[in-house]
Amino acid sequence: MTKGSALVVGVGPGLGLALAEAFAADGHTVALFGRDAARLDKYASALTAEGRTARAYAVDAADPEGLAAALTRAVDESGAPEVVVYNAALINPDAPDELDAGEFAHSFAVNVTGAVVAARTVLPLLRDGRGSLLFTGGGLALDPSPDYTSLSVGKAALRSYVQSLHKQQQGSGVHVATVTIGGYIGGDDPRFSPENLAAAYLDLHRQPQDQWQAELLYV
């Protein structure tokens, strides 16, 4: 049986690229979304050179209309998705007593609102009404940092949204889950290498339905 496409929102040189590579290696046509068009084209070309099928879509996750349009175009060009990963995040150091309202709103747009837009856009398009919606969470959702306040708030809000969506979609054939990463991606601990993390997302997508979970605590 042919596999549906994999849409990865938030593709950079770390986890995002590793996710695209993992799902491409698993036989999915992959669509890569991010702000840097040149970098995305380079990644897609490298995957194509390996015999994979990959397409790049330059878009800002903070732009709801643009993100929805890019996702819809990817489905038109690559077929109905089997898995969608929302990996976009804006990581800015900021203190709770120094937050700028405009910057906080922009951070929330990337960290949370973009995830909502992605979910609402792709839910009706999932292959045969089934598939996985996976979201990159973080340990700051459980233990907020006063040095990264907007990211802490964003990850907490994302976790709450995904768990609500998971409950709503129970019995629908759609697996909704967040991967709460409790370590530094790409640091000294090999467990948190982009490749090992991407393998965990792939395993989560492959889970039998009777084992579906709303959250994978990766600590």
Provide a descriptive summary of the structure in words.
This is SDR family NAD(P)-dependent oxidoreductase. InterPro entries: DHB_DH (IPR003560), NAD(P)-bd_dom_sf (IPR036291), SDR_fam (IPR002347). This protein has 219 residues and is an alpha/beta fold. The protein has helices at residues 15-25, 37-49, 64-78, 101-122, 149-169, 194-206, and strands at residues 5-9, 30-34, 54-58, 81-86, 131-138, 174-181, 215-218. Strands 3-2-1-4-5-6-7 form a 7-stranded parallel beta sheet, with helices on both faces. α1 (15-25) links the parallel β1 and β2. The longest helix is centred in the middle third of the chain and has 22 residues, at 101-122. The protein starts with a strand and ends with a strand. The model has no long low-confidence stretch (mean pLDDT 97).
Strand content: 15-25%
Report the C-alpha radius of gyration, rounded.
Answer: 16 Å
Major β-sheet strand ordering: 3-2-1-4-5-6-7
Mean pLDDT: 97
Binned, the helix content reads 40-55%
In the CATH scheme, what's the topology name? Rossmann fold
Q: Which CATH first-tier class would you pick?
A: Alpha Beta
- Helix count from the secondary structure assignment: 6
CATH architecture: 3-Layer(aba) Sandwich
Give me the CATH superfamily: NAD(P)-binding Rossmann-like Domain
Content-based structural category: alpha/beta
Low-confidence stretches: none
Alpha-carbon distance between the termini? Answer: 34 Å
How many domains make up the 3D coordinates? 1
